């Protein structure tokens, strides 16, 4: 009896949902196409979850996803920048409260990061004019993601093996001096307890800013290993510091993309942000319950898989050899 | 319907007609399409009637009607990929200069059956006959319809829903009253659209008239698009501020003690 009453009652709901599907579409003013608001919100949540879990921006996942739902690579890259700025700001505040953030180091990386971002935006504009932007984005993704992904997998599998043998699984900090430490212009960063040359710091900052602007990624997944391996920044301050850097490079990338290419879609960015910051909070909680090596292995596999996906696209004959690009409107 | 026709008749009283004395009177269901937050495309309807030649009462030939809708002009580049060192790279491109961003050829029969090919070519009726000038070196000219870049161009535009040729979109309700369905996809570019209506009989153009419509972004969409274009830096700063606020808000809402 209860069941028979329930069945017809469900129908109006389904009909309302179907009618509502029209209203769920939201028109993106810069991307110039309608998207399903819940699809984009869901993507924001999912990527935010992953970014919170691993302490990364998640741009390397979000940009390809946006391209997949039909947004042009140029608009995707430019809009994701502001989304990453939002999620890294949330993270940075959390780490600031925990005092797990080296502001001096972040500022030093930033000064070079902004120059890198400006160079990246300039090259982005140039490549777009030469019809080679999509190729460049594709190639950078393949190279970076497969390289970083396989390194992470290798490193975390080794750590896991060591753990099996009963040895401490923590990351070894081999000989505290490399050739990088022999370079001049040495600076002391108190909170991170390191004493290094300014040259590698500036070089890392520039690289992250540059790569971020071209690929629409915050570069957290690159910056964290770089800071650990090259500068020997302790794990306590590395993620917080990386988040400050990501925040500022992505915020300036947003402004620069908006000023030069006029491609930042604020409506798209807002939906992504809202989903992203909520997802990040839940992701961070899940991440804290997992072991570091397991987490790095998962992230490595994810990064590697996305890299392979891009490689596949470059190598396999595309369905259509032709593509269009607007040169001028009226 | 009658009101629409009277309105149209008033508006298009001065419509030009070629040698023959048939007259075309058309009216569009909507002259202004507003692209709003939930715009998912729109179907416009063009109603029209053929006023037969008063000099030849009783003689009523069978009419064919073609409606061509062209959107605002834009310059597009068609790029061709080739395999270079194992990967697919854009190696070759052709620029299509000031071509319609939207083009639909709607007819009551396949255009090839309506008139001989030389007539169609002269009037630019049909996707194959419409002038799509390409930049060829220092020249700007249209190529043969079989040109691979031209074929790819129309094909890609058709895939995007922007170019179409339909032989069923125009229906004659009576021998002289017709109705044409004009589909505007969600990605229809904003701007002025020209609606060109051509009446054929026995392969000869009998009458021609036109109408126009506007696709405009309104309200919020217009505001955002304008801001992004005209005040890039400010727009970027505001978007960044929005990002910071969202991020800060989340950290407050989800703050744990």
**Spatial order of the strands forming the largest sheet of chain B:** 2-14-13-4-7-10
What is the averaged pLDDT score of chain B? 82
- What's the CATH C level of the largest domain in chain B? Mainly Beta
Say how many strands of chain A there are. 5
Query: Structural class of the helix and strand makeup of chain A?
Result: mainly alpha
Into which percentage range does the β-strand content of chain B fall? 35-45%
Low-confidence stretches of chain A: 1-21
User: Structural class of the secondary elements of chain B?
Assistant: alpha+beta
Order of helices and strands of chain B: HEEEEEEEHHEEHEEEEEHH
Kindly state the mean pLDDT of chain A as a whole number? 77
Helix content of chain A: over 70%
Estimate nothing, just give the exact number of structural domains of chain B: 2
Radius of gyration of chain B, taken over Cα atoms and rounded to an integer in Å:
24 Å
Large-scale geometry of chain A: globular
Coarse shape of chain B: globular
Biggest β-sheet of chain A: count, sense, barrel? 2 strands, antiparallel
CATH architecture of the largest domain in chain B: Sandwich
Describe the protein.
- The complex is a heterodimer of chains A (330) and B (257).
- Chain A is mainly alpha-helical.
- Helix content of chain A is 72%, strand content 7%.
- In chain A, strands 1-2 form a two-stranded antiparallel sheet.
- In chain A, helix 3 (59-68) packs antiparallel against helix 4 and helix 6 (133-164) runs antiparallel to helix 11 (292-315).
- The radius of gyration of chain A is 22 Å and the shape is globular.
- With 257 residues, chain B is α+β, with helices and mostly antiparallel strands.
- Chain B is built from six helices and 14 strands.
- In chain B, strands 2-14-13-4-7-10 form a six-stranded mixed beta sheet. In chain B, strands 1-3-12-11 form a four-stranded antiparallel beta sheet. In chain B, strands 5-6-8-9 form a four-stranded antiparallel beta sheet, covered by helices on one side.
- In chain B, strand 8 and strand 9 form a beta hairpin.
- Chain B is globular, with a radius of gyration of 24 Å.
- Classes of the chains: A mainly alpha (330), B alpha+beta (257).
